[in-house]
Amino acid sequence: MNMNLILPNCLNPPPRLRYAPPESRPRVSTGRISTFAAASATTSRAPIQLENKDLVLQRKSTSAMEQLDIERGVCVPFRKYTPETVRTKVLESRGAVLSLLLRGVEIVWSLGLYWSTLMYDCFIGRDEEVVPYRARQLRNLLCDLGPSFIKAGQVLANRPDIIREDYMNELCILQDDVPPFPNQVAFNIIEEELGQPLEAVFSKISSKTIAAASLGQVYKATLRATGEDVAIKVQRPDIEPIIYRDLFLFRTLASFLNGISLQKLGCNAELIVDEFGEKLLEELDYTLEAGNIEDFLENFKDDPTVKIPRVYRKLSGSHVLVMEWIDGIRCTDPQAIKTAGIDVDGFLTVGVSAALRQLLEFGLFHGDPHPGNIFAMRDGRIAYVDFGNVAVLSQQNKQILIDAVVHAVNEDYAEMANDFTRLGFLAPGTDVSPIIPALEAIWQNSVGKGLADFNFRIVTGKFNQLVYNYPIRIPERFSLVIRSLLTQEGICFTLQPDFKFLEVAYPYVAKRLLTDPNPALRERLIQVLFKDGIFQWKRLENLIVLAKENVTKMSSNPALQVKDRRQTSRNWQLERKLDLTDTIKDGARLFFIDEGIRRQLLLALTEDSKLHIQELVDVYRLVEDQVDFPSVAREVVQDFPAVVRDIMLSWSNSVLSDR
To answer: For this structure, is 368 an active site residue?
Structure first.
C-alpha cells in the first residue's frame, strides 16, 4: 500500500541523511554561516524566564528570514513581508479574531476532509488507482479556497520536495485556468488608480479579458493621447487583506508541522511559508513589477534579439500596471509561428540563450515563462510579458551553478553533492555521502547516450524522486529556475519536436567560459581544461567548436539583420566572430606568472615522452579565422611590462613566504 501522496512520507520514512561530526564529514564549502542550527535551537529551547513572548516569536522569525538571506547571498534592505508585519496587519483590523476563526475553521475543515479521504483510500487499498481523481479534487479545492491557495497550488506544482509528481502535473493547470472577475469592477479599479475616467485616458478598451490569473487580469486598450496600444493589468479587488489573513493562518498551521518538515526537508515548515509569503506580497505590488520590467529593459538594452515591453509609469500604480502592447505570436500557437515564416530554429536558439543570460549572467530571471508569457516576434525576436514573478540569484549562487556544470563535466559527483549544500538544498553539516551514488546514477543515465539525447524533463523527473525520498528542500528561487528551464524546454519541443536543448545551452556555456573576463569564470575554465592534473586537449577543442557554433547561430538570426534597429550596437557586431583576444592575453599572463599552470602546460606538451605539436596545430586551425593574431600579439607586447611586474611580485611573495 503506497501512502506517498502529499507529505505522507511520514508514514513510510525514507532513508535518512545523517548529521556527521566535523571531523568525519566530506569536504563541504564553508562559505555560508549555519544559522539553521541556531534557528533549530531557538525553536527547541524553552524561552528564558521573564522574557517577553513576542520577543521570542520575533527572534525565531528573524532567524528564519536571516537564513533565507544567507542562502541567497543577498541583503534585502526593505521587506514587504515579515511574520511580524503580517501579524500586526491582520490583528489590527476590526473583527480580526472572528474573521481569523471563521477562515481557520473553513481551511481546517476543507483540508481535513480531503486528507481523511486520502487516508480512507489508503486503508481500503485503492490509493494508487484514484490518484488522478484525487489530484483533480485537490486542484478544485485550492481554487475554491481562493487566490492565496491558487497561488500556493502554483508553487506546489514546482516543489517535488513537498508533493509527488502526478499531483504536481495536475496543479500545473492552475497556471492558466483561473476565472476572471467582472469587467465593471476592473474598470472601477483602473479609474480609481488613474484618478480620472477611462475615456479620458483610453480611446478604447477590450470588452473581454486577454488573460486572467490568480492575482489579476489583463485588458488591451489604446491610449487616447498617442494612439499606442497598451496592456492594462488590474489587481483583483480587496485581495490584499485576504492574502495577509491567509498568510497568517498558513504560518500558524505550519508551526504544527515543524517536526515533519525538519525530518523530511531539513528545515522548519515556517521557513517554507516565509519564502512563499515574501514572493506573494512582492507580486501584489505592481510598482515592484514595473521596476522589474525596467531592470529587464536595462539588462537587454543592447540585445537586438530580445523584446521587453516598456512600462508607462505615470499611468501605473500599486494596483494597475500599464505596459506596451506586444504584437507577437504567443508560443501557445506553434502553427501560427510556422505559418508566419519565422525561423523556428533561430527563434529557439535566441530563446535558450536569453534564458541562460538571465540565469548565469544577469542573475535576474523570469520566474514564469509559460507559453502564454512568451511571444515570437515576426522578425525573429523573443518577447517576454508578465514580470510579477521574477527571482534574483546572487553572484555567489551564479558561480556555484557554474561550478555544478563544471563538476558535472568532470564527473565529480562528490563536489556536485557539496554544491547542493552551498546552494541551500541541504542543511549545513549534512552528510552528503548517501546522495553521491544517486547523483551519479541520474547523470550517467541522462548523458550515457550523449548530450544530444539529454532531456531536461527526464532528468528532473529522476531528480524529483531523489528530493522526495531524501530530506532535501528546494529553495524557492531554484524551484523557479527548474520551472523556467522545464517550461522553456517544453516550448522548444512543442515548436520543434527534435530540438536538442543542450545543443544550444552547451555552446552558450562554452562561449561564456572561453570569452568572459570574469576571474571566477577564468578559474572555472581552468578546472574544465585540467582533469587530475592533465590538460584536456580534446575538451579545449570541443569548447571552441561549441562556442563558434553559438556565435554562428546567434549572428544568423533575422533580428540581427535589421539595418535600422537602434539597439544593434558595436558590441553585437563583434559577436559575429568568437573574440578570444582577452582569453589569450589572460592565458599568456597566467603561463608566465603561475608556476603550477606553467608546469602542467609544459607536461601536456611533452606527455608520453613526445611533443604534442599536432594538438596545438588542431587548436590553431579552429581559431585562425576567428582571431587577429598580429593584433593579439601587439596587445600582449604592450601588456608585457605589467606581466613582468606581476612576475616580480609573485617571485618576491614566494621568497618572503619561504622565509
So the answer is: yes
